[in-house]
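Side project, low priority. Logging it here so it doesn't get lost.
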Amino acid sequence: MRVEVCDVRFGYGASGPEVLHGVSLTAEPGTLHGVIGPNGSGKSTLLRVIGGVANPASGCVLLGGQDIGSLSPRKAAQLVAAVGASEAVIFPFSVEETVLMGRSPHLRFLASETFLDVAKAHEAMERTGVAPLAGRRITALSSGERQRVLIARALAQEPRVLLLDEPTAHLDVNFQVEIMELVQALAHESGITTIAVLHDLNLAGRYCDRITMLGSGQVAACGSPGEVLTEEHLLDVYGVRAIVGRRPELDRPAVFVISGSPRHGKPDEHRGGGVSSGVDDIE
């Protein structure tokens, strides 16, 4: 299902400042579309608008040509699934119970899950590699395992569009790679239109098919990873001097941050003028 964001403007409250200023992007079926940008650039807000949680002041979001604002909440939930940033897990539901919650949009009011719902939940658990954890309490899982369970819950909705807000936040390098490989495979193999807000530029460059870079609530760049992750864009939008090389195993960009721009203050003395590749340099 193609997702089209058309000249969207959004602000919080009648008198609040505008957060998104005429943002447009198109995400194609079966692709992983990354959204990047500095803190406060409107990334998570854009995801909320795409998911129909927040209504734009002007512009629209089209799902397969249909305005999401014209859909009932139940119908929208059948089409779009979301995994929030650092979702709090409080109640000790089992993994199976948690994934089954994804079937809610397909159930009649007060109806119980059917055999088909259980089968869909198990299919989602198998796809995300958490089936062996079915009887475990989600509160007892590691961060990486928990993130896989939340993605499985989203898949149980059978969405046409999957929205992910910082899916690798607070995960170690191994789990970051696992989650991004899973998300990329879901998009490419299942045909789900996947849009992910990412902070790590190297993960975005390695796994995304296309990237939209936001700066101050506007689209600063949009295109392939190589077209978006350039030294000029990183300086203009993030205010950092960087070297953008190529990955030896893929024709993909690799970002190495050198230092902050003089207009954003003096370079960090701890960097010593050397080359660093971590996203912490940008955050």
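Brief comment: Residues 101 and 255 are 39 Å apart (CA to CA).
Revisit when time allows.
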